[in-house]
């Protein structure tokens, strides 16, 4: 089978890792694979890559013609396969990084089967992305094309339920958990001199807003003197850099034992994971949640914040995540109820306005009740300004610091780490992933083709746009 995988780019990150896993597992099964991206990858890959510049992230005032994009994609694929691919496999078509892709996908589906794999929704905490789609799509209702030959793959049960609610046929909807694998490495803590003999707790992530770097810094402030918390990468997007740099500056000012950007000198991801004593996550939102699986493959315990919307399926397969916390609460009076409510109100109004929707009745109260319980507010529901107030208090007030000791649960025993490792290898292997993908492709081709219509985009938006789900770090 000839398969053409499409994404905006192949820069290091979660989706690129998914594409690498898919391509290698499909090639191992005898399929021909071509990957299209807007630019050449920064490192050598084991599969064919061709550049289609119009797949790039677009600026708000930049518009790409969907028909021209589809034509160029077909031209490049024909040059590789001497024919159109049997399946187009497009990642994150609806993310709002390039408004031409949804309609281009529909045009490709006039001739071949198309799989639209969604990692993230623009409707889920990405108002600027959705605004770009609203301004540049000929009709926002064309965001989710459907037809017998157009299938969707999602990473978790939450996203599956959203598309079910929008009346996507179950025969065209697939649950496709990502594969995980471990690169070969021989590393020890000696390769991280910054640790200086301390326990290394690693946050393998890019420090964008939803990764909740303020909570990472708070936990570093609460850590024992023999522990160093370190993150791997700063944001790639220049617009996200100022917030990240503010956290770096605050850590330096308050002398918090933390290291930002441990992987920015080119050190191997696998080597850093192997060198760590524990892996941590404080993220408030994930698509699939590789962060909840990869640590176990390296034989490392995971600590930090749970995301039940994402981790439910992992637990169902037997992965033990009982030591993660669902909320990290601090006294509301540390930031002030009036101040928090005012911040919520202003942000909610702007958030809904950007999505082109009216604010629901009692939206502020509903968002407040989701964040606050018995006078305690979830730290992950605060914005950076309010988080900084808490961090300064914890650093400068021993009583405040003592009040938060014990909220961070200890890591699992080694026996549970080994059990999790075995479970992840069994359920999320590359072999299993390639077989799942092939079965989906076969089902798509067998189903044939037909007319193309669209899912109700307003239904999908309303599934995500609920005050109870509102998070200031996702505005």
TrEMBL record:
Keywords: Glycosyltransferase, Transferase
Positions of transmembrane segments: none
GO terms, molecular function: glycosyltransferase activity
EC number: 2.4.-.-
Record-linked InterPro entries: Glyco_trans_4-like_N
UniProt cross-references to SUPFAM superfamilies, sorted A to Z: UDP-Glycosyltransferase/glycogen phosphorylase
Coiled coil: none
Keyword Glycosyltransferase: yes
Domain Glycosyltransferase subfamily 4-like N-terminal per the UniProt entry, residue ranges: 13-129
Pfam family, one: Glyco_trans_4_4
PANTHER family xref list: GLYCOSYLTRANSFERASE, SPORE COAT PROTEIN SA
UniProt protein name: Glycosyltransferase family 4 protein
């Amino acid at each position: 089978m000839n398969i053409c995988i499409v994404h905006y780019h192949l820069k290091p990150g979660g989706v690129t890792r998914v594409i690498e896993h898919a391509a290698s597992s499909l090639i191992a099964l005898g399929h021909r694979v071509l990957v299209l991206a807007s630019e050449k990858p920064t490192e050598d890959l084991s599969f064919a890559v061709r550049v289609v510049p119009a797949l790039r992230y677009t600026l708000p005032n930049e518009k790409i013609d969907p028909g021209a994009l589809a034509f160029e994609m077909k031209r490049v694929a024909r040059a590789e396969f001497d024919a159109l691919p049997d399946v187009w496999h497009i990642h994150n078509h609806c993310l709002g990084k390039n408004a031409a892709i949804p309609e281009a996908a529909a045009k490709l589906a006039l001739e071949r089967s198309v799989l639209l794999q969604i990692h993230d929704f623009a409707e889920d905490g990405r108002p600027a992305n959705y605004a770009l789609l609203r301004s540049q799509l000929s009709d926002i209702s064309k965001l989710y094309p459907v037809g017998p030959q157009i299938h969707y793959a999602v990473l978790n049960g939450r996203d599956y339920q959203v598309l079910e609610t929008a009346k996507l046929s179950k025969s065209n909807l697939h649950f496709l958990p990502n594969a995980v694998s471990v690169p070969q490495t021989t590393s020890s803590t000696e390769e991280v001199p910054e640790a200086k003999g301390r326990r290394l707790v690693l946050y393998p992530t890019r420090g964008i807003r939803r990764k909740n770097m303020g909570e990472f810094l708070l936990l570093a402030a609460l850590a024992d003197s023999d522990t160093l918390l370190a993150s791997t990468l700063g944001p790639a997007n220049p617009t996200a850099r100022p917030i990240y740099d503010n956290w770096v500056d605050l850590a330096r000012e308050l002398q918090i034992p933390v290291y930002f950007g441990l992987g920015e000198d080119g050190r191997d991801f696998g080597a850093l994971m192997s060198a760590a004593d524990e892996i941590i996550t404080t993220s408030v939102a994930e698509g699939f949640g590789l962060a909840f699986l990869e640590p176990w493959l390296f034989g490392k315990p995971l600590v930090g914040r749970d995301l039940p919307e994402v981790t439910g399926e992992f637990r169902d397969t037997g992965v033990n995540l009982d030591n993660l916390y669902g909320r990290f609460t601090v006294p509301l009076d540390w930031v002030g109820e009036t101040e928090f409510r005012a911040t919520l109100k202003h942000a909610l109004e702007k958030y809904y306005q950007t999505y082109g929707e009216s604010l629901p009745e009692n939206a502020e109260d509903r968002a407040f009740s989701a964040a606050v319980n018995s006078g305690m507010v979830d730290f992950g529901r605060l914005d950076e300004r309010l988080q900084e107030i808490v961090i300064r208090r914890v650093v400068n007030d021993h009583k405040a610091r003592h009040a938060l000791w014990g909220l961070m649960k200890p890591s699992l025993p080694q026996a549970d780490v080994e059990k999790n490792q075995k479970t992840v290898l069994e359920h999320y292997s590359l072999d299993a992933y390639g077989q799942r993908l092939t079965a989906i492709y076969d089902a798509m081709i067998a189903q044939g083709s037909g007319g193309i219509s669209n899912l109700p985009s307003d239904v999908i938006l309303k599934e995500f746009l609920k005050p109870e789900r509102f998070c200031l770090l996702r505005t």
